Amino acid sequence: MAQETLDSESAPAAPAQEVSVVVEKPQVTEKEPQPSAPAPLPEPEVPEKPAVVAVEEEAVEVEKLKVEEKEETKITQSVSFKEETNIAGELPEPQKKALDELKQLIQEALNNHEFTAKPKAEEKPVAEPEPEPKKEEEENKEEKKEEKEEETPAAEISEEPKVETDAPAAVEVKEEENTPPPPPPADAPAAEVVVVETEVAEKAKAVDDDGAKTVEAIEESVVAVAAPPAEKEKEEPSAEVAPQSEETKEAQVPPPPPEKVSIWGIPLLAEEKSDVILLKFLRARDFKVKDAFTMIKNTVSWRKEFGIETLLDEDLGNELEKVVFMQGFDKEGHPVCYNVYGEFQNKELYQNTFADEEKRSKFLRWRIQFLEKSIRKLDFNPTGINTMVQVNDLKNSPGPGKKELRQATNQALNLLQDNYPEFVAKQVFINVPWWYLAFNRMISPFLTQRTKSKFVFASPAKSAETLFKYIAPEQVPVQYGGLSREGKQEFSVADAVTEVTIKPAAKHSVEFPITENCNLVWELRVVGWEVNYGAEFVPTAEDGYTVIVSKTRKVSSADETVISDSFKTGEPGKVVLTIDNQTSKKKKLLYRSKTKPYSD
Protein backbone atom coordinates (compact mmCIF):
# COMPACT_ATOMS: atom_id res chain seq x y z
CA MET A 1 0.00 0.00 0.00
CA ALA A 2 2.64 2.50 1.07
CA GLN A 3 4.84 1.76 -1.90
CA GLU A 4 2.02 2.12 -4.42
CA THR A 5 0.83 5.44 -3.05
CA LEU A 6 4.37 6.80 -2.99
CA ASP A 7 4.91 5.70 -6.59
CA SER A 8 1.76 7.52 -7.69
CA GLU A 9 2.53 10.69 -5.77
CA SER A 10 6.25 10.99 -6.62
CA ALA A 11 7.19 11.39 -10.27
CA PRO A 12 10.85 10.12 -10.30
CA ALA A 13 11.27 6.36 -9.88
CA ALA A 14 14.54 6.33 -7.93
CA PRO A 15 13.27 8.32 -4.91
CA ALA A 16 10.22 6.04 -4.72
CA GLN A 17 12.48 3.03 -4.28
CA GLU A 18 14.49 4.72 -1.55
CA VAL A 19 11.31 5.64 0.34
CA SER A 20 9.94 2.10 0.11
CA VAL A 21 13.03 0.87 1.95
CA VAL A 22 12.31 3.31 4.77
CA VAL A 23 8.75 1.97 5.06
CA GLU A 24 9.89 -1.65 5.26
CA LYS A 25 12.39 -1.10 8.09
CA PRO A 26 9.81 -0.88 10.95
CA GLN A 27 8.17 -4.11 9.69
CA VAL A 28 11.46 -6.01 9.98
CA THR A 29 12.15 -4.71 13.48
CA GLU A 30 8.71 -5.65 14.83
CA LYS A 31 10.24 -8.80 16.33
CA GLU A 32 12.08 -6.74 18.90
CA PRO A 33 9.95 -5.32 21.72
CA GLN A 34 10.38 -1.62 21.03
CA PRO A 35 7.80 1.05 21.83
CA SER A 36 8.23 2.71 18.44
CA ALA A 37 7.58 -0.49 16.43
CA PRO A 38 3.74 -0.59 16.42
CA ALA A 39 3.24 2.25 13.93
CA PRO A 40 -0.04 2.58 11.90
CA LEU A 41 0.96 0.60 8.79
CA PRO A 42 -2.26 0.88 6.73
CA GLU A 43 -1.92 4.67 6.43
CA PRO A 44 0.58 5.57 3.72
CA GLU A 45 1.00 9.14 4.87
CA VAL A 46 2.70 8.28 8.14
CA PRO A 47 5.99 6.87 6.77
CA GLU A 48 6.35 9.66 4.21
CA LYS A 49 7.51 12.16 6.84
CA PRO A 50 10.49 10.20 8.11
CA ALA A 51 11.40 9.32 4.53
CA VAL A 52 11.63 12.99 3.56
CA VAL A 53 13.60 13.75 6.69
CA ALA A 54 15.98 10.91 5.93
CA VAL A 55 16.54 12.19 2.39
CA GLU A 56 17.19 15.71 3.70
CA GLU A 57 19.63 14.40 6.31
CA GLU A 58 21.49 12.43 3.63
CA ALA A 59 21.73 15.55 1.48
CA VAL A 60 23.11 17.55 4.44
CA GLU A 61 25.68 14.84 5.17
CA VAL A 62 26.80 14.80 1.54
CA GLU A 63 27.27 18.58 1.61
CA LYS A 64 29.29 18.31 4.83
CA LEU A 65 31.51 15.66 3.29
CA LYS A 66 32.10 17.87 0.27
CA VAL A 67 33.07 20.80 2.50
CA GLU A 68 35.46 18.60 4.50
CA GLU A 69 37.04 17.28 1.31
CA LYS A 70 37.55 20.84 0.08
CA GLU A 71 39.22 21.78 3.36
CA GLU A 72 41.51 18.76 3.18
CA THR A 73 42.49 19.53 -0.38
CA LYS A 74 43.28 23.08 0.59
CA ILE A 75 45.72 21.75 3.17
CA THR A 76 47.28 18.83 1.34
CA GLN A 77 47.74 20.25 -2.14
CA SER A 78 51.17 21.82 -2.63
CA VAL A 79 52.59 22.61 -6.03
CA SER A 80 56.15 23.21 -4.81
CA PHE A 81 57.77 23.08 -1.41
CA LYS A 82 57.92 26.32 0.47
CA GLU A 83 58.63 26.58 4.16
CA GLU A 84 55.37 27.45 5.88
CA THR A 85 54.98 29.85 8.76
CA ASN A 86 55.12 28.55 12.32
CA ILE A 87 53.29 31.54 13.81
CA ALA A 88 49.87 30.33 14.97
CA GLY A 89 48.19 33.63 14.13
CA GLU A 90 49.32 33.46 10.49
CA LEU A 91 48.11 29.91 9.82
CA PRO A 92 45.11 29.31 7.53
CA GLU A 93 41.86 28.62 9.36
CA PRO A 94 41.82 24.85 8.66
CA GLN A 95 45.36 24.53 10.02
CA LYS A 96 44.49 26.62 13.10
CA LYS A 97 41.54 24.35 13.77
CA ALA A 98 43.69 21.24 13.38
CA LEU A 99 46.32 22.65 15.76
CA ASP A 100 43.68 23.44 18.40
CA GLU A 101 42.14 19.98 18.12
CA LEU A 102 45.55 18.36 18.48
CA LYS A 103 46.25 20.43 21.59
CA GLN A 104 42.98 19.25 23.13
CA LEU A 105 43.82 15.60 22.45
CA ILE A 106 47.30 16.02 23.94
CA GLN A 107 45.93 17.81 27.02
CA GLU A 108 43.46 14.99 27.64
CA ALA A 109 46.23 12.43 27.19
CA LEU A 110 48.46 14.30 29.65
CA ASN A 111 45.64 14.50 32.19
CA ASN A 112 45.00 10.76 31.86
CA HIS A 113 48.71 9.91 31.88
CA GLU A 114 48.37 8.11 28.56
CA PHE A 115 51.98 8.78 27.56
CA THR A 116 53.42 6.94 30.57
CA ALA A 117 50.55 4.60 31.48
CA LYS A 118 50.81 0.89 30.70
CA PRO A 119 48.60 -0.56 27.98
CA LYS A 120 44.98 -1.08 28.95
CA ALA A 121 45.29 -4.83 28.53
CA GLU A 122 47.70 -4.87 31.47
CA GLU A 123 45.49 -2.68 33.69
CA LYS A 124 42.23 -4.62 33.25
CA PRO A 125 42.90 -7.82 35.27
CA VAL A 126 41.16 -7.34 38.65
CA ALA A 127 40.04 -9.92 41.24
CA GLU A 128 36.39 -8.78 41.11
CA PRO A 129 35.05 -10.72 38.10
CA GLU A 130 36.32 -14.07 39.48
CA PRO A 131 33.73 -14.51 42.30
CA GLU A 132 30.84 -13.85 39.92
CA PRO A 133 30.72 -17.42 38.59
CA LYS A 134 30.86 -18.66 42.18
CA LYS A 135 27.83 -16.56 43.00
CA GLU A 136 26.04 -18.01 40.02
CA GLU A 137 26.96 -21.54 41.16
CA GLU A 138 25.67 -20.83 44.67
CA GLU A 139 22.46 -19.44 43.27
CA ASN A 140 22.08 -22.52 41.07
CA LYS A 141 22.64 -24.76 44.10
CA GLU A 142 20.02 -22.84 46.08
CA GLU A 143 17.57 -23.15 43.19
CA LYS A 144 18.22 -26.90 43.00
CA LYS A 145 17.71 -27.20 46.74
CA GLU A 146 14.43 -25.29 46.50
CA GLU A 147 13.34 -27.60 43.67
CA LYS A 148 14.21 -30.60 45.85
CA GLU A 149 12.20 -29.06 48.67
CA GLU A 150 9.22 -28.68 46.38
CA GLU A 151 9.60 -32.30 45.23
CA THR A 152 9.89 -33.74 48.76
CA PRO A 153 6.15 -33.65 49.63
CA ALA A 154 5.26 -35.97 46.72
CA ALA A 155 7.98 -38.38 47.75
CA GLU A 156 6.92 -38.33 51.39
CA ILE A 157 3.41 -39.58 50.54
CA SER A 158 4.80 -42.85 49.23
CA GLU A 159 7.81 -43.09 51.58
CA GLU A 160 7.15 -42.85 55.30
CA PRO A 161 10.74 -42.86 56.63
CA LYS A 162 11.49 -39.30 55.44
CA VAL A 163 9.31 -37.53 57.95
CA GLU A 164 11.88 -35.09 59.23
CA THR A 165 12.18 -33.21 55.96
CA ASP A 166 8.41 -32.96 55.55
CA ALA A 167 7.84 -31.16 58.80
CA PRO A 168 9.46 -27.87 57.91
CA ALA A 169 7.76 -27.82 54.53
CA ALA A 170 4.40 -28.47 56.19
CA VAL A 171 5.11 -25.78 58.72
CA GLU A 172 5.78 -23.32 55.91
CA VAL A 173 2.52 -24.20 54.16
CA LYS A 174 0.53 -23.95 57.35
CA GLU A 175 2.04 -20.60 58.14
CA GLU A 176 1.21 -19.29 54.74
CA GLU A 177 -2.32 -20.65 54.89
CA ASN A 178 -2.98 -19.42 58.41
CA THR A 179 -1.78 -15.90 57.71
CA PRO A 180 -4.80 -13.60 57.59
CA PRO A 181 -5.28 -11.35 54.52
CA PRO A 182 -4.76 -8.08 56.37
CA PRO A 183 -1.17 -7.23 57.30
CA PRO A 184 -0.20 -8.68 60.68
CA PRO A 185 1.00 -6.51 63.53
CA ALA A 186 4.63 -5.66 63.93
CA ASP A 187 5.24 -8.28 66.59
CA ALA A 188 3.72 -11.20 64.64
CA PRO A 189 6.53 -11.86 62.13
CA ALA A 190 9.12 -12.06 64.84
CA ALA A 191 7.10 -14.68 66.71
CA GLU A 192 6.60 -16.77 63.60
CA VAL A 193 10.28 -16.73 62.85
CA VAL A 194 11.11 -17.90 66.35
CA VAL A 195 8.65 -20.78 66.09
CA VAL A 196 9.97 -21.89 62.74
CA GLU A 197 13.58 -21.67 63.85
CA THR A 198 12.91 -23.67 67.04
CA GLU A 199 10.96 -26.33 65.22
CA VAL A 200 13.62 -26.67 62.55
CA ALA A 201 16.35 -26.78 65.16
CA GLU A 202 14.62 -29.56 67.15
CA LYS A 203 14.00 -31.67 64.07
CA ALA A 204 17.50 -31.17 62.73
CA LYS A 205 18.93 -33.19 65.64
CA ALA A 206 17.30 -36.43 64.46
CA VAL A 207 18.42 -36.11 60.83
CA ASP A 208 21.48 -37.67 59.20
CA ASP A 209 24.14 -35.78 57.26
CA ASP A 210 22.13 -35.59 54.02
CA GLY A 211 19.06 -34.48 55.85
CA ALA A 212 21.01 -31.85 57.75
CA LYS A 213 21.94 -30.21 54.51
CA THR A 214 18.34 -29.96 53.39
CA VAL A 215 17.25 -28.63 56.74
CA GLU A 216 19.97 -25.99 56.69
CA ALA A 217 18.89 -24.95 53.19
CA ILE A 218 15.24 -24.79 54.33
CA GLU A 219 16.24 -22.82 57.40
CA GLU A 220 18.08 -20.30 55.24
CA SER A 221 15.11 -19.93 52.90
CA VAL A 222 12.61 -19.57 55.76
CA VAL A 223 14.67 -16.99 57.57
CA ALA A 224 15.23 -15.06 54.36
CA VAL A 225 11.50 -14.97 53.58
CA ALA A 226 10.26 -14.30 57.10
CA ALA A 227 12.84 -11.70 58.01
CA PRO A 228 11.17 -8.74 59.66
CA PRO A 229 11.01 -5.55 57.61
CA ALA A 230 12.72 -3.63 60.34
CA GLU A 231 15.87 -5.71 59.95
CA LYS A 232 15.79 -5.33 56.15
CA GLU A 233 15.54 -1.60 56.47
CA LYS A 234 18.51 -1.67 58.78
CA GLU A 235 20.52 -3.80 56.39
CA GLU A 236 19.76 -1.72 53.30
CA PRO A 237 21.20 1.56 54.54
CA SER A 238 24.32 -0.26 55.71
CA ALA A 239 24.79 -1.54 52.15
CA GLU A 240 24.23 1.93 50.75
CA VAL A 241 26.61 3.64 53.14
CA ALA A 242 29.63 1.74 51.81
CA PRO A 243 29.54 3.07 48.24
CA GLN A 244 28.79 6.56 49.49
CA SER A 245 31.81 6.44 51.76
CA GLU A 246 33.96 5.22 48.85
CA GLU A 247 32.71 8.04 46.64
CA THR A 248 33.42 10.58 49.32
CA LYS A 249 36.89 9.16 49.79
CA GLU A 250 37.51 9.36 46.03
CA ALA A 251 36.19 12.91 46.02
CA GLN A 252 38.52 13.83 48.85
CA VAL A 253 41.57 12.41 47.06
CA PRO A 254 42.74 15.03 44.51
CA PRO A 255 43.42 13.78 40.96
CA PRO A 256 47.09 13.42 40.01
CA PRO A 257 48.58 16.40 38.18
CA PRO A 258 49.00 16.14 34.39
CA GLU A 259 52.16 14.38 33.33
CA LYS A 260 54.98 16.34 31.72
CA VAL A 261 56.25 15.11 28.37
CA SER A 262 58.99 16.78 26.33
CA ILE A 263 60.49 16.12 22.92
CA TRP A 264 63.93 17.53 22.03
CA GLY A 265 63.88 19.38 25.34
CA ILE A 266 60.59 21.18 24.61
CA PRO A 267 57.32 20.39 26.45
CA LEU A 268 54.40 19.29 24.28
CA LEU A 269 52.12 21.96 25.73
CA ALA A 270 53.80 24.93 27.36
CA GLU A 271 54.87 27.72 25.03
CA GLU A 272 55.13 28.92 21.46
CA LYS A 273 57.94 26.46 20.80
CA SER A 274 55.45 23.67 21.51
CA ASP A 275 53.31 24.83 18.58
CA VAL A 276 56.32 24.50 16.29
CA ILE A 277 56.79 20.88 17.38
CA LEU A 278 53.10 20.04 16.95
CA LEU A 279 52.99 21.65 13.51
CA LYS A 280 55.81 19.36 12.37
CA PHE A 281 53.73 16.29 13.20
CA LEU A 282 50.61 17.80 11.63
CA ARG A 283 52.40 18.59 8.38
CA ALA A 284 53.90 15.12 8.29
CA ARG A 285 50.35 13.72 8.37
CA ASP A 286 48.71 16.28 6.06
CA PHE A 287 46.99 17.94 9.05
CA LYS A 288 45.01 14.82 9.93
CA VAL A 289 44.67 15.36 13.65
CA LYS A 290 44.17 11.75 14.78
CA ASP A 291 47.07 10.52 12.66
CA ALA A 292 49.35 13.26 13.99
CA PHE A 293 48.31 12.46 17.57
CA THR A 294 49.06 8.78 17.04
CA MET A 295 52.45 9.68 15.55
CA ILE A 296 53.30 11.80 18.60
CA LYS A 297 52.37 9.00 21.00
CA ASN A 298 54.43 6.51 19.02
CA THR A 299 57.40 8.88 18.94
CA VAL A 300 57.28 9.44 22.71
CA SER A 301 57.08 5.70 23.27
CA TRP A 302 59.96 4.99 20.86
CA ARG A 303 62.19 7.63 22.47
CA LYS A 304 61.72 5.95 25.86
CA GLU A 305 62.42 2.48 24.47
CA PHE A 306 65.48 3.68 22.52
CA GLY A 307 66.80 5.59 25.56
CA ILE A 308 67.33 8.94 23.84
CA GLU A 309 68.15 10.89 27.00
CA THR A 310 70.91 8.49 28.03
CA LEU A 311 72.08 8.14 24.42
CA LEU A 312 73.13 11.79 24.35
CA ASP A 313 75.85 11.13 26.95
CA GLU A 314 77.17 7.89 25.44
CA ASP A 315 80.68 7.79 23.97
CA LEU A 316 80.33 6.04 20.61
CA GLY A 317 83.72 7.05 19.20
CA ASN A 318 84.67 9.36 16.33
CA GLU A 319 85.42 6.86 13.56
CA LEU A 320 82.51 8.19 11.50
CA GLU A 321 83.16 11.90 11.84
CA LYS A 322 84.14 12.11 8.15
CA VAL A 323 81.03 10.21 7.07
CA VAL A 324 78.48 12.60 8.58
CA PHE A 325 79.33 16.13 9.68
CA MET A 326 77.79 19.57 10.04
CA GLN A 327 79.46 22.54 8.35
CA GLY A 328 78.16 25.98 7.48
CA PHE A 329 74.71 27.33 6.66
CA ASP A 330 72.72 27.83 3.51
CA LYS A 331 71.64 31.21 2.17
CA GLU A 332 68.48 31.14 4.33
CA GLY A 333 70.30 30.28 7.54
CA HIS A 334 69.65 26.53 7.71
CA PRO A 335 72.52 24.45 9.09
CA VAL A 336 73.94 22.05 6.51
CA CYS A 337 74.62 18.38 7.18
CA TYR A 338 76.88 16.41 4.80
CA ASN A 339 76.56 12.65 4.33
CA VAL A 340 79.60 11.22 2.53
CA TYR A 341 78.84 7.65 1.45
CA GLY A 342 82.11 7.34 -0.46
CA GLU A 343 83.99 6.99 2.83
CA PHE A 344 82.70 3.43 3.06
CA GLN A 345 84.98 2.46 0.16
CA ASN A 346 87.48 1.99 2.95
CA LYS A 347 87.09 -1.76 3.58
CA GLU A 348 88.31 -1.55 7.15
CA LEU A 349 85.81 1.18 8.00
CA TYR A 350 83.04 -0.72 6.24
CA GLN A 351 83.73 -3.92 8.17
CA ASN A 352 83.97 -2.07 11.49
CA THR A 353 80.61 -0.45 10.82
CA PHE A 354 78.41 -3.07 9.12
CA ALA A 355 80.04 -6.48 9.60
CA ASP A 356 77.42 -7.82 12.04
CA GLU A 357 74.17 -6.88 13.73
CA GLU A 358 75.90 -5.47 16.81
CA LYS A 359 78.04 -3.11 14.74
CA ARG A 360 75.06 -2.02 12.64
CA SER A 361 73.14 -1.30 15.83
CA LYS A 362 76.03 0.81 17.10
CA PHE A 363 76.09 2.74 13.80
CA LEU A 364 72.35 3.38 14.12
CA ARG A 365 72.73 4.65 17.68
CA TRP A 366 75.62 6.88 16.58
CA ARG A 367 73.53 8.29 13.72
CA ILE A 368 70.57 9.01 16.00
CA GLN A 369 72.86 10.57 18.60
CA PHE A 370 74.39 12.84 15.97
CA LEU A 371 70.95 13.91 14.78
CA GLU A 372 69.68 14.54 18.31
CA LYS A 373 72.63 16.78 19.13
CA SER A 374 72.13 18.69 15.88
CA ILE A 375 68.41 19.20 16.55
CA ARG A 376 69.11 20.56 20.03
CA LYS A 377 71.02 23.42 18.36
CA LEU A 378 68.02 24.52 16.26
CA ASP A 379 65.83 27.49 17.13
CA PHE A 380 62.25 26.36 17.81
CA ASN A 381 60.84 29.83 18.20
CA PRO A 382 58.02 30.52 15.68
CA THR A 383 60.29 32.83 13.68
CA GLY A 384 63.46 30.75 14.16
CA ILE A 385 65.24 28.22 11.93
CA ASN A 386 64.16 24.72 12.96
CA THR A 387 65.03 22.71 9.84
CA MET A 388 68.28 21.77 8.12
CA VAL A 389 69.66 21.07 4.66
CA GLN A 390 70.97 17.59 3.89
CA VAL A 391 73.73 17.19 1.29
CA ASN A 392 74.26 13.60 0.20
CA ASP A 393 77.53 12.92 -1.62
CA LEU A 394 77.20 9.74 -3.69
CA LYS A 395 80.68 9.85 -5.18
CA ASN A 396 82.31 6.41 -4.93
CA SER A 397 79.26 5.16 -3.08
CA PRO A 398 79.28 1.37 -2.56
CA GLY A 399 75.94 1.16 -4.35
CA PRO A 400 72.99 -1.17 -3.84
CA GLY A 401 75.15 -4.30 -4.03
CA LYS A 402 76.31 -3.88 -0.41
CA LYS A 403 73.59 -5.70 1.52
CA GLU A 404 74.78 -4.63 4.98
CA LEU A 405 74.91 -0.94 4.05
CA ARG A 406 71.48 -1.15 2.44
CA GLN A 407 69.95 -2.74 5.54
CA ALA A 408 71.46 -0.18 7.90
CA THR A 409 70.45 2.71 5.65
CA ASN A 410 66.85 1.50 5.32
CA GLN A 411 66.55 1.01 9.07
CA ALA A 412 67.87 4.50 9.73
CA LEU A 413 65.56 6.04 7.13
CA ASN A 414 62.51 4.35 8.65
CA LEU A 415 63.34 5.64 12.11
CA LEU A 416 63.95 9.15 10.81
CA GLN A 417 60.68 9.21 8.87
CA ASP A 418 58.62 7.93 11.79
CA ASN A 419 60.15 9.97 14.61
CA TYR A 420 61.78 13.08 13.11
CA PRO A 421 59.14 14.77 10.95
CA GLU A 422 59.74 17.89 8.91
CA PHE A 423 63.34 18.54 9.90
CA VAL A 424 64.68 18.68 6.32
CA ALA A 425 64.24 21.86 4.31
CA LYS A 426 66.12 20.51 1.29
CA GLN A 427 67.69 17.20 0.22
CA VAL A 428 70.56 17.82 -2.22
CA PHE A 429 72.17 14.81 -3.90
CA ILE A 430 75.50 15.53 -5.55
CA ASN A 431 77.87 13.41 -7.64
CA VAL A 432 74.89 11.26 -8.48
CA PRO A 433 75.72 8.19 -10.64
CA TRP A 434 73.52 7.12 -13.51
CA TRP A 435 72.08 4.12 -11.69
CA TYR A 436 70.79 6.34 -8.88
CA LEU A 437 69.04 8.66 -11.30
CA ALA A 438 67.38 5.64 -12.92
CA PHE A 439 66.29 4.37 -9.51
CA ASN A 440 64.88 7.77 -8.58
CA ARG A 441 62.82 7.87 -11.78
CA MET A 442 61.30 4.54 -10.81
CA ILE A 443 60.25 5.58 -7.30
CA SER A 444 59.33 9.17 -8.17
CA PRO A 445 55.66 8.39 -8.99
CA PHE A 446 55.21 6.97 -5.48
CA LEU A 447 56.46 10.13 -3.72
CA THR A 448 54.24 13.02 -2.72
CA GLN A 449 54.62 16.40 -4.36
CA ARG A 450 55.78 17.85 -1.05
CA THR A 451 58.56 15.26 -0.77
CA LYS A 452 59.66 15.53 -4.39
CA SER A 453 59.84 19.31 -4.15
CA LYS A 454 62.58 18.95 -1.51
CA PHE A 455 64.83 16.74 -3.66
CA VAL A 456 67.60 18.13 -5.87
CA PHE A 457 69.90 15.91 -7.95
CA ALA A 458 73.18 16.94 -9.56
CA SER A 459 75.63 15.03 -11.69
CA PRO A 460 79.37 15.24 -10.90
CA ALA A 461 79.87 18.05 -13.43
CA LYS A 462 77.04 20.13 -11.95
CA SER A 463 77.53 19.42 -8.24
CA ALA A 464 79.40 22.60 -7.23
CA GLU A 465 77.16 24.82 -9.32
CA THR A 466 74.09 23.20 -7.77
CA LEU A 467 75.39 23.70 -4.24
CA PHE A 468 76.08 27.38 -4.91
CA LYS A 469 72.39 27.87 -5.70
CA TYR A 470 71.51 27.12 -2.11
CA ILE A 471 74.75 27.61 -0.17
CA ALA A 472 77.15 30.53 -0.47
CA PRO A 473 80.66 29.52 -1.68
CA GLU A 474 82.29 30.75 1.54
CA GLN A 475 80.09 28.21 3.40
CA VAL A 476 80.73 25.27 1.06
CA PRO A 477 83.59 22.95 2.04
CA VAL A 478 86.60 23.14 -0.21
CA GLN A 479 86.23 19.50 -1.32
CA TYR A 480 82.86 20.41 -2.88
CA GLY A 481 84.08 23.47 -4.77
CA GLY A 482 83.79 26.13 -2.05
CA LEU A 483 86.30 28.10 0.01
CA SER A 484 85.46 26.85 3.52
CA ARG A 485 88.48 25.16 5.10
CA GLU A 486 89.19 23.77 8.51
CA GLY A 487 91.78 25.22 10.85
CA LYS A 488 93.02 28.75 11.22
CA GLN A 489 92.78 30.61 7.92
CA GLU A 490 93.20 34.15 6.72
CA PHE A 491 89.58 34.29 5.68
CA SER A 492 86.47 33.07 7.45
CA VAL A 493 82.85 32.44 6.48
CA ALA A 494 82.18 36.08 7.37
CA ASP A 495 84.23 37.21 4.38
CA ALA A 496 81.95 37.22 1.33
CA VAL A 497 82.97 35.60 -1.93
CA THR A 498 82.41 37.00 -5.41
CA GLU A 499 81.24 34.60 -8.12
CA VAL A 500 82.04 35.13 -11.80
CA THR A 501 81.31 32.93 -14.78
CA ILE A 502 84.08 32.86 -17.39
CA LYS A 503 82.93 32.06 -20.90
CA PRO A 504 84.74 29.46 -23.03
CA ALA A 505 87.91 30.70 -24.78
CA ALA A 506 87.82 34.00 -22.87
CA LYS A 507 89.96 35.97 -20.42
CA HIS A 508 88.79 37.60 -17.24
CA SER A 509 90.64 40.18 -15.12
CA VAL A 510 90.07 41.00 -11.45
CA GLU A 511 91.44 44.28 -10.01
CA PHE A 512 92.12 45.02 -6.34
CA PRO A 513 92.88 48.72 -5.69
CA ILE A 514 95.35 49.43 -2.88
CA THR A 515 96.69 52.51 -1.12
CA GLU A 516 100.07 53.45 0.40
CA ASN A 517 101.46 51.27 3.12
CA CYS A 518 98.95 48.51 2.47
CA ASN A 519 99.12 44.73 2.63
CA LEU A 520 96.67 43.11 0.22
CA VAL A 521 95.57 39.49 0.82
CA TRP A 522 93.41 37.47 -1.55
CA GLU A 523 92.37 33.94 -2.37
CA LEU A 524 90.64 32.49 -5.39
CA ARG A 525 89.70 29.25 -7.07
CA VAL A 526 88.24 28.15 -10.36
CA VAL A 527 85.91 25.18 -10.12
CA GLY A 528 87.55 22.48 -12.20
CA TRP A 529 90.50 24.80 -12.99
CA GLU A 530 92.29 23.89 -16.28
CA VAL A 531 92.92 27.60 -16.82
CA ASN A 532 95.93 29.95 -16.91
CA TYR A 533 96.46 32.24 -13.93
CA GLY A 534 98.74 35.21 -13.34
CA ALA A 535 98.96 38.31 -11.06
CA GLU A 536 100.78 41.66 -11.27
CA PHE A 537 100.91 45.01 -9.53
CA VAL A 538 100.33 48.16 -11.60
CA PRO A 539 101.30 51.41 -9.81
CA THR A 540 99.21 54.54 -10.12
CA ALA A 541 102.21 56.76 -10.98
CA GLU A 542 102.95 56.99 -14.69
CA ASP A 543 106.65 56.58 -14.16
CA GLY A 544 106.20 53.51 -11.96
CA TYR A 545 107.08 49.97 -12.88
CA THR A 546 104.77 46.98 -13.15
CA VAL A 547 105.63 44.24 -10.70
CA ILE A 548 104.87 40.60 -11.48
CA VAL A 549 103.35 39.09 -8.35
CA SER A 550 102.62 35.62 -9.78
CA LYS A 551 103.96 34.44 -13.11
CA THR A 552 101.33 33.21 -15.53
CA ARG A 553 100.96 29.45 -15.35
CA LYS A 554 98.45 26.75 -16.11
CA VAL A 555 96.60 25.40 -13.12
CA SER A 556 94.93 22.01 -13.24
CA SER A 557 92.39 20.58 -10.84
CA ALA A 558 95.04 18.26 -9.39
CA ASP A 559 97.56 21.01 -8.62
CA GLU A 560 95.83 23.04 -5.93
CA THR A 561 92.27 23.76 -4.99
CA VAL A 562 92.64 27.30 -3.63
CA ILE A 563 95.30 29.90 -4.42
CA SER A 564 96.14 32.21 -1.53
CA ASP A 565 98.51 35.14 -2.10
CA SER A 566 99.41 38.61 -0.83
CA PHE A 567 101.30 41.75 -1.86
CA LYS A 568 102.82 44.54 0.21
CA THR A 569 103.48 47.99 -1.22
CA GLY A 570 104.26 51.49 -0.12
CA GLU A 571 102.69 53.23 -3.10
CA PRO A 572 99.13 53.31 -4.44
CA GLY A 573 98.18 51.14 -7.35
CA LYS A 574 96.24 47.97 -8.10
CA VAL A 575 96.77 44.23 -8.25
CA VAL A 576 95.44 42.64 -11.42
CA LEU A 577 94.58 38.94 -11.57
CA THR A 578 94.20 37.36 -15.01
CA ILE A 579 92.32 34.08 -15.65
CA ASP A 580 92.51 32.73 -19.17
CA ASN A 581 89.96 30.02 -19.98
CA GLN A 582 91.11 28.29 -23.13
CA THR A 583 88.69 25.37 -22.84
CA SER A 584 85.34 24.97 -24.54
CA LYS A 585 83.46 24.99 -21.25
CA LYS A 586 82.47 27.88 -19.04
CA LYS A 587 84.20 28.12 -15.68
CA LYS A 588 83.09 29.36 -12.26
CA LEU A 589 85.56 31.78 -10.64
CA LEU A 590 85.43 32.47 -6.88
CA TYR A 591 87.56 35.12 -5.17
CA ARG A 592 87.72 37.46 -2.20
CA SER A 593 90.27 39.92 -0.76
CA LYS A 594 90.97 42.25 2.13
CA THR A 595 93.58 44.84 3.04
CA LYS A 596 95.61 45.29 6.20
CA PRO A 597 97.50 48.35 7.36
CA TYR A 598 101.22 48.06 6.70
CA SER A 599 104.15 50.05 8.09
CA ASP A 600 107.91 49.54 7.74
From TrEMBL:
List where Basic and acidic residues composition bias occurs.
Answer: 93-103, 115-147
Its cellular-component GO annotations read: cytoplasm; membrane
Q: Which residues form the GOLD domain?
A: 490-595
UniProt-annotated stretches for the region Disordered:
1-48, 68-194, 227-258
| Pfam families membership | CRAL_TRIO, CRAL_TRIO_N, GOLD_PATL1_C
Entry-linked Gene3D superfamilies: CRAL-TRIO lipid binding domain, GOLD domain
The superkingdom listed in its UniProt entry is Eukaryota
| GO MF annotation: an example | lipid binding
Q: Where in the cell is it found?
A: Cytoplasm; Membrane
The cross-references to PANTHER family, in alphabetical order and at most eight, read:
PATELLIN-1, PATELLIN-2
In Swiss-Prot or TrEMBL terms, this protein is called Patellin-3
Please name the source species: Gossypium hirsutum (Upland cotton)
